[in-house]
Amino acid sequence: MNETRAGRLSGRIVAATHNKGKLAEFNDLLAPRGLEVVGAGALGLDEPEETGDSFAANAALKARAAARVARLPALADDSGLCVAALDDAPGIYSARWAGDGKDFAGAMARIERELLARGAAPPWRAHFISALALAWPEAFEGRVDGHLVFPPRGTSGFGYDPIFIPDGHSRSFGEMTAEEKHGLPRDNSLALSHRARAFQKLARALID
Hints:
The chain is 31% helix and 24% strand. By secondary structure, the protein is an alpha+beta fold.
């Protein structure tokens, strides 16, 4: 990995994730910027235990661990869904709610059960958070607000995308294309997703 005088990173970067859906989004968002992305799984890197108390802390933990072992700059994401009526749960535990088998259908059903058990009335407000950290590390957080719908809609994206409708839109992330979510292919100036918005902040920090 090289660094120009302008501060722009170029070359190879480790995506500190074993999540195939997340790795695909990393490639979507970084390839147009001339970065070659290699996943942690391809390098045989272990997944560190996420012991942080925030998205940014967990992202930094994963980035440092990957960079230390791979000896390459590493970029990590920690992200999740925060549901207002559930006191922002599942939050940093979003992946854990899906279990070891990554059963997001079960996790989405659990959210619906808990909302109904609390007697929460729609619209069920929620937001996605994505915190990005490079190995030095610095975190870049993106947020998109919206509300939840049940049953889940659409089969695009991954995770909780089918139940989340961003403000100003009538379709869930699960019904949107990558181009609609990330502002692809030329740039993400019209980024809608929380991860693409976090990438915007990251890109500005690398260029400035």
